[in-house]
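Example record used in the benchmark description.
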Amino acid sequence: MIEVNNLSFGYKKGKPLYRNLNLHLPIGSIYGLLGKNGAGKSTLLKNFTGLLFPKQGELLVNGFIPKKRLPSFLETIYFIPEEVYVPSLTINSYKKLFAPFYRLFNEERFYGYLNQLDVHDTGKLNTLSFGQQKKFIIAFALACNTKILLLDEPTNGLDIPSKIQFRKLISSVFTDDKMIFISTHQIRDLENLIDNVIIVDNGELLLQASIGEIGRKLSFKTIDNLSDETELLYSEPCLKGHAVVVENKTAQEGQVNLEHLFNAITENPAKAKAIFNTK
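Model output (C-alpha cells):
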C-alpha cells in the first residue's frame, strides 16, 4: 500500500512540482500515472522509492518511510526507470550479484521471462541494444517477486512484438497481493492493462479513479455534429464525425479511451471534478 498525505516536492530552481498531494493506493491494482512531460511523474516514483524526499507531508510505502531505505523496505519494491543502466556483467553474473537482495527471487521464472522476451545473449549486458537491456531488467524485476513494482515509461525502447509480450507478462504475473504502478505518456501501449487511473497536472491531482468508475461517469462516443459544446469535456475530429467525451448520465458502464480521458481531464479539470465528486 502507498499512502501520500499532503506531499509537497520541488527542486531548488523553479516552482514546486507537487503541492499538498494526497493519494491512497491499496494493493491489488495496476495503476496508470498519466501526465504531461515535465509534470513530475518520474519524480513521484523516485519519492516512492526513497531516491528523492518530499519537502513536506507524509509518505508511507508498505508501511515504511522510503527515505530511510531500509533493506526490509527495499526487498518489497522494485523500480525500473525510463533510462535503464546495466553494468559490464553477463546475465548469470548479474543474477548472482543482485538476486540475493530479494528474498523471493525465483530463478526458474527469471530464465522463463528472459526466454519469453527473447533475451538470449550470453555476452556482457552493456553490449546489448537498449531494447534488449530494458527487457533484461524487466525480466529480473518480475523474478524478484516484490509486492510493489514501479515502472517508468516501460515500453520506451521496445519494438511492437516486445510491447505485446510485455503486456502479456504483466497480466500473467499480477496477483491481488501486489501493486504495479506504471508512469507513462504512451497511453495506447498500456490501455488494456491499467485498472486505476491517476492524472496529475501543474502539481495537482486531477483524477484518481478506477476504469469502472470512469466508464460510469463519462461517455466516450462519436457524434455527427457538435450541437451543444457546453456539455463537452473534450472533442476532436475523426473520420466519422467527432470523437467526444461527455458526462455519462445513464450510469451504465461504457468503454474508456484513456487518451481522450487525459485530454478531457486536463482541459476541463473543474468540470471533471464536479462530475466525479457527485455520487
